[in-house]
TrEMBL record:
The gene is trmB. GO terms for molecular function: tRNA (guanine(46)-N7)-methyltransferase activity. One of its GO terms (cellular component) is tRNA methyltransferase complex. Residues 10-48 form a coiled coil. S-adenosyl-L-methionine binds at residues 104, 129, 178. This is tRNA (guanine-N(7)-)-methyltransferase. It catalyses: guanosine(46) in tRNA + S-adenosyl-L-methionine = N(7)-methylguanosine(46) in tRNA + S-adenosyl-L-homocysteine. Substrate binds at residues 212, 251-254. The lineage of its organism: Bacteria, Fusobacteriati, Fusobacteriota, Fusobacteriia, Fusobacteriales. Catalyzes the formation of N(7)-methylguanine at position 46 (m7G46) in tRNA. Its EC number is 2.1.1.33. Pathway: tRNA modification; N(7)-methylguanine-tRNA biosynthesis. Keywords: Coiled coil, Methyltransferase, S-adenosyl-L-methionine, Transferase, tRNA processing. It comes from Leptotrichia buccalis (strain ATCC 14201 / DSM 1135 / JCM 12969 / NCTC 10249 / C-1013-b). The keyword Hydrolase does not apply. InterPro entries: SAM-dependent_MTases_sf, tRNA_(Gua-N-7)_MeTrfase_Trmb, tRNA_methyltr_TrmB_bact.
Protein backbone atom coordinates (compact mmCIF):
# COMPACT_ATOMS: atom_id res chain seq x y z
CA UNK A 1 0.00 0.00 0.00
CA UNK A 2 1.35 3.41 -1.04
CA UNK A 3 2.33 5.83 1.68
CA UNK A 4 0.19 8.94 1.86
CA UNK A 5 1.44 12.47 2.26
CA UNK A 6 -0.23 15.60 3.52
CA UNK A 7 -1.40 18.10 0.92
CA UNK A 8 -3.69 21.12 0.58
CA UNK A 9 -7.09 20.60 -1.11
CA UNK A 10 -9.04 23.00 -3.35
CA UNK A 11 -10.74 24.65 -0.40
CA UNK A 12 -7.53 25.04 1.61
CA UNK A 13 -8.19 22.03 3.83
CA UNK A 14 -5.46 19.51 4.64
CA UNK A 15 -5.87 16.14 2.91
CA UNK A 16 -3.82 12.95 2.59
CA UNK A 17 -2.98 11.71 -0.92
CA UNK A 18 -0.45 9.37 -2.53
CA UNK A 19 2.69 10.57 -4.32
CA UNK A 20 1.13 9.45 -7.63
CA UNK A 21 -2.02 11.45 -6.97
CA UNK A 22 0.05 14.49 -6.02
CA UNK A 23 2.05 14.23 -9.24
CA UNK A 24 -1.16 13.88 -11.26
CA UNK A 25 -2.66 16.97 -9.58
CA UNK A 26 0.48 19.00 -10.25
CA UNK A 27 0.37 18.09 -13.95
CA UNK A 28 -3.28 19.13 -14.19
CA UNK A 29 -2.51 22.40 -12.41
CA UNK A 30 0.36 23.09 -14.80
CA UNK A 31 -1.91 22.53 -17.83
CA UNK A 32 -4.63 24.74 -16.33
CA UNK A 33 -2.16 27.50 -15.48
CA UNK A 34 -0.77 27.42 -19.02
CA UNK A 35 -4.30 27.59 -20.45
CA UNK A 36 -5.11 30.59 -18.25
CA UNK A 37 -1.93 32.32 -19.40
CA UNK A 38 -2.70 31.74 -23.09
CA UNK A 39 -6.33 32.79 -22.62
CA UNK A 40 -5.21 35.98 -20.85
CA UNK A 41 -2.87 36.82 -23.74
CA UNK A 42 -5.64 36.24 -26.28
CA UNK A 43 -8.10 38.29 -24.23
CA UNK A 44 -5.56 41.13 -24.20
CA UNK A 45 -5.39 41.06 -28.01
CA UNK A 46 -9.20 41.08 -28.26
CA UNK A 47 -9.32 44.16 -26.03
CA UNK A 48 -6.49 45.92 -27.84
CA UNK A 49 -8.11 45.37 -31.23
CA UNK A 50 -11.55 46.21 -29.78
CA UNK A 51 -13.04 43.01 -31.19
CA UNK A 52 -15.20 42.85 -28.07
CA UNK A 53 -17.30 45.79 -29.27
CA UNK A 54 -18.96 43.58 -31.89
CA UNK A 55 -20.41 41.34 -29.16
CA UNK A 56 -20.45 43.19 -25.83
CA UNK A 57 -21.19 46.64 -24.44
CA UNK A 58 -17.87 46.88 -22.61
CA UNK A 59 -14.53 44.99 -22.52
CA UNK A 60 -14.02 41.98 -20.29
CA UNK A 61 -11.07 40.21 -18.68
CA UNK A 62 -11.75 36.82 -20.24
CA UNK A 63 -13.50 35.81 -23.45
CA UNK A 64 -14.62 32.66 -25.18
CA UNK A 65 -11.36 31.34 -26.69
CA UNK A 66 -13.02 30.91 -30.11
CA UNK A 67 -13.54 34.65 -30.40
CA UNK A 68 -9.80 34.99 -30.91
CA UNK A 69 -9.67 32.08 -33.34
CA UNK A 70 -12.22 33.75 -35.59
CA UNK A 71 -9.45 36.16 -36.59
CA UNK A 72 -7.60 33.28 -38.24
CA UNK A 73 -10.23 32.80 -40.97
CA UNK A 74 -10.97 36.19 -42.58
CA UNK A 75 -11.77 34.58 -45.93
CA UNK A 76 -14.24 32.12 -44.41
CA UNK A 77 -15.86 33.97 -41.52
CA UNK A 78 -17.49 37.37 -40.92
CA UNK A 79 -18.66 38.62 -37.53
CA UNK A 80 -18.84 42.39 -38.03
CA UNK A 81 -22.41 43.37 -38.96
CA UNK A 82 -21.29 46.40 -40.94
CA UNK A 83 -18.91 44.31 -43.03
CA UNK A 84 -21.65 41.77 -43.74
CA UNK A 85 -24.38 44.30 -44.51
CA UNK A 86 -22.24 46.20 -47.01
CA UNK A 87 -22.37 43.17 -49.32
CA UNK A 88 -26.15 43.40 -49.65
CA UNK A 89 -26.90 42.96 -53.38
CA UNK A 90 -23.14 42.45 -53.94
CA UNK A 91 -22.54 38.88 -52.79
CA UNK A 92 -21.54 37.75 -56.26
CA UNK A 93 -18.78 40.34 -56.05
CA UNK A 94 -17.64 38.80 -52.76
CA UNK A 95 -17.53 35.31 -54.27
CA UNK A 96 -16.07 36.69 -57.51
CA UNK A 97 -18.48 34.82 -59.74
CA UNK A 98 -22.10 34.86 -60.91
CA UNK A 99 -23.04 31.48 -59.45
CA UNK A 100 -26.27 30.95 -57.53
CA UNK A 101 -26.15 31.76 -53.81
CA UNK A 102 -27.68 29.49 -51.16
CA UNK A 103 -28.29 30.35 -47.51
CA UNK A 104 -28.34 28.08 -44.47
CA UNK A 105 -29.99 29.44 -41.33
CA UNK A 106 -28.52 27.86 -38.19
CA UNK A 107 -25.63 25.88 -39.65
CA UNK A 108 -24.20 24.38 -36.47
CA UNK A 109 -20.57 23.31 -36.95
CA UNK A 110 -20.91 23.45 -40.71
CA UNK A 111 -21.02 19.80 -41.77
CA UNK A 112 -24.05 20.30 -43.98
CA UNK A 113 -22.99 23.49 -45.75
CA UNK A 114 -19.39 22.29 -46.15
CA UNK A 115 -20.75 19.08 -47.67
CA UNK A 116 -22.88 21.09 -50.08
CA UNK A 117 -20.01 23.41 -51.00
CA UNK A 118 -17.82 20.38 -51.76
CA UNK A 119 -20.54 18.69 -53.80
CA UNK A 120 -21.69 21.74 -55.75
CA UNK A 121 -18.62 23.79 -56.64
CA UNK A 122 -20.76 25.88 -59.02
CA UNK A 123 -22.83 27.28 -56.13
CA UNK A 124 -21.99 29.76 -53.37
CA UNK A 125 -23.02 29.23 -49.75
CA UNK A 126 -23.62 31.62 -46.86
CA UNK A 127 -24.10 29.89 -43.50
CA UNK A 128 -25.54 31.68 -40.47
CA UNK A 129 -24.62 30.75 -36.90
CA UNK A 130 -24.27 32.60 -33.58
CA UNK A 131 -21.97 30.44 -31.47
CA UNK A 132 -18.27 31.25 -31.77
CA UNK A 133 -17.07 27.64 -31.56
CA UNK A 134 -19.41 26.45 -34.29
CA UNK A 135 -18.36 29.29 -36.60
CA UNK A 136 -14.68 28.47 -36.08
CA UNK A 137 -15.23 24.74 -36.64
CA UNK A 138 -17.08 25.46 -39.88
CA UNK A 139 -14.34 27.79 -41.07
CA UNK A 140 -11.64 25.24 -40.18
CA UNK A 141 -13.38 22.55 -42.25
CA UNK A 142 -13.72 24.92 -45.20
CA UNK A 143 -10.07 25.95 -45.08
CA UNK A 144 -8.91 22.35 -44.74
CA UNK A 145 -10.83 21.48 -47.92
CA UNK A 146 -9.64 24.63 -49.68
CA UNK A 147 -13.21 25.70 -50.49
CA UNK A 148 -13.75 29.12 -52.04
CA UNK A 149 -17.55 29.05 -52.34
CA UNK A 150 -18.52 29.26 -48.68
CA UNK A 151 -18.76 31.91 -45.95
CA UNK A 152 -19.81 31.62 -42.31
CA UNK A 153 -21.58 34.67 -40.89
CA UNK A 154 -22.49 35.51 -37.30
CA UNK A 155 -26.05 36.63 -37.92
CA UNK A 156 -29.58 35.79 -36.84
CA UNK A 157 -32.00 34.41 -39.41
CA UNK A 158 -34.49 37.19 -38.86
CA UNK A 159 -31.93 39.76 -40.09
CA UNK A 160 -31.69 38.49 -43.68
CA UNK A 161 -33.13 41.69 -45.15
CA UNK A 162 -30.17 43.59 -43.68
CA UNK A 163 -27.60 41.75 -45.78
CA UNK A 164 -29.48 40.15 -48.69
CA UNK A 165 -30.91 42.06 -51.63
CA UNK A 166 -33.85 41.54 -53.98
CA UNK A 167 -33.81 38.11 -55.64
CA UNK A 168 -30.25 37.55 -54.43
CA UNK A 169 -30.50 33.93 -53.33
CA UNK A 170 -31.61 30.74 -55.06
CA UNK A 171 -32.28 28.56 -52.04
CA UNK A 172 -32.53 28.38 -48.24
CA UNK A 173 -31.75 25.46 -45.94
CA UNK A 174 -33.22 25.19 -42.45
CA UNK A 175 -32.20 22.01 -40.63
CA UNK A 176 -33.56 20.89 -37.27
CA UNK A 177 -34.55 24.29 -35.84
CA UNK A 178 -35.90 24.54 -32.32
CA UNK A 179 -39.62 23.57 -32.44
CA UNK A 180 -40.36 25.92 -29.51
CA UNK A 181 -43.09 23.71 -28.06
CA UNK A 182 -45.63 25.94 -26.37
CA UNK A 183 -43.97 29.05 -27.83
CA UNK A 184 -44.46 28.35 -31.54
CA UNK A 185 -44.43 32.07 -32.40
CA UNK A 186 -40.64 31.97 -31.82
CA UNK A 187 -40.05 29.44 -34.58
CA UNK A 188 -37.79 30.22 -37.53
CA UNK A 189 -40.32 29.07 -40.12
CA UNK A 190 -43.26 31.43 -39.84
CA UNK A 191 -45.30 33.59 -42.17
CA UNK A 192 -42.84 36.39 -41.35
CA UNK A 193 -39.96 34.37 -42.81
CA UNK A 194 -41.88 33.86 -46.06
CA UNK A 195 -42.55 37.60 -46.23
CA UNK A 196 -38.78 38.12 -46.17
CA UNK A 197 -38.23 35.37 -48.72
CA UNK A 198 -40.71 37.16 -51.00
CA UNK A 199 -37.96 39.77 -51.32
CA UNK A 200 -34.64 37.91 -51.27
CA UNK A 201 -35.52 34.55 -52.86
CA UNK A 202 -35.66 34.24 -56.63
CA UNK A 203 -38.78 32.95 -58.34
CA UNK A 204 -38.43 29.15 -58.59
CA UNK A 205 -36.04 29.29 -55.64
CA UNK A 206 -36.55 26.69 -52.90
CA UNK A 207 -36.68 26.35 -49.14
CA UNK A 208 -35.42 22.99 -47.85
CA UNK A 209 -36.53 21.95 -44.36
CA UNK A 210 -35.52 18.99 -42.17
CA UNK A 211 -36.85 18.21 -38.71
CA UNK A 212 -37.27 15.36 -36.25
CA UNK A 213 -40.37 17.05 -34.82
CA UNK A 214 -43.66 15.63 -36.12
CA UNK A 215 -45.84 18.63 -35.26
CA UNK A 216 -43.40 21.16 -36.69
CA UNK A 217 -43.41 19.15 -39.93
CA UNK A 218 -47.22 19.14 -40.07
CA UNK A 219 -47.46 22.83 -39.14
CA UNK A 220 -45.10 23.85 -41.96
CA UNK A 221 -47.11 21.81 -44.47
CA UNK A 222 -50.27 23.54 -43.26
CA UNK A 223 -48.67 27.00 -43.30
CA UNK A 224 -47.35 26.74 -46.85
CA UNK A 225 -50.71 25.48 -48.08
CA UNK A 226 -52.15 28.88 -47.12
CA UNK A 227 -49.50 30.93 -48.95
CA UNK A 228 -50.09 32.22 -52.48
CA UNK A 229 -46.44 32.54 -53.52
CA UNK A 230 -45.21 29.11 -52.40
CA UNK A 231 -45.90 25.50 -53.24
CA UNK A 232 -44.80 22.25 -51.62
CA UNK A 233 -43.11 20.21 -54.33
CA UNK A 234 -41.95 17.33 -52.14
CA UNK A 235 -42.34 16.08 -48.62
CA UNK A 236 -41.74 12.87 -46.71
CA UNK A 237 -42.08 11.80 -43.11
CA UNK A 238 -39.18 9.36 -43.51
CA UNK A 239 -36.30 10.97 -45.41
CA UNK A 240 -33.81 8.16 -44.88
CA UNK A 241 -36.15 5.63 -46.47
CA UNK A 242 -37.23 7.85 -49.35
CA UNK A 243 -36.00 8.40 -52.91
CA UNK A 244 -34.14 11.47 -51.59
CA UNK A 245 -32.02 9.43 -49.17
CA UNK A 246 -29.08 8.97 -51.53
CA UNK A 247 -28.62 12.72 -52.06
CA UNK A 248 -29.12 13.69 -48.43
CA UNK A 249 -26.21 15.37 -46.62
CA UNK A 250 -26.43 14.77 -42.88
CA UNK A 251 -25.99 17.51 -40.29
CA UNK A 252 -24.10 16.90 -37.03
CA UNK A 253 -27.42 16.81 -35.17
CA UNK A 254 -28.84 14.34 -37.67
CA UNK A 255 -25.90 11.96 -37.27
CA UNK A 256 -26.14 12.12 -33.48
CA UNK A 257 -29.91 11.77 -33.50
CA UNK A 258 -29.92 8.74 -35.79
CA UNK A 259 -27.30 6.96 -33.69
CA UNK A 260 -29.27 7.40 -30.46
CA UNK A 261 -32.95 7.42 -31.44
CA UNK A 262 -35.21 5.39 -33.66
CA UNK A 263 -37.26 8.25 -35.10
CA UNK A 264 -37.88 9.25 -38.69
CA UNK A 265 -36.48 12.47 -40.16
CA UNK A 266 -39.10 14.65 -41.85
CA UNK A 267 -38.27 16.65 -44.96
CA UNK A 268 -40.01 19.29 -47.07
CA UNK A 269 -39.09 21.14 -50.28
CA UNK A 270 -40.96 24.39 -50.87
CA UNK A 271 -40.80 26.31 -54.14
CA UNK A 272 -41.42 30.01 -54.64
CA UNK A 273 -43.78 30.13 -57.64
CA UNK A 274 -44.13 33.89 -58.12
Amino acid sequence: MENKIESIGKNGQKIEITEAEKEKREKIKKVNDEFKKINAEKSKIINEQEIWKYFFEKPKKNYNKYMYEMLEFPEYLMYNNKSVDKYREKWNEFFRNDNDIYLEIGCGSGNFTVGNAEKFKDRNYIALELRFKRLVLGARKSKKRNLHNILFVRKRGETILDFLGVNEISGVYINFPDPWEGEERKRVITESLFSKLDIVLKTDGKLFFKTDHEQYYKDVLELVDKLDNYKIIYHTSDLHNSEKASENIETEFEQMFLSKHNMNIKYIEIKKIK
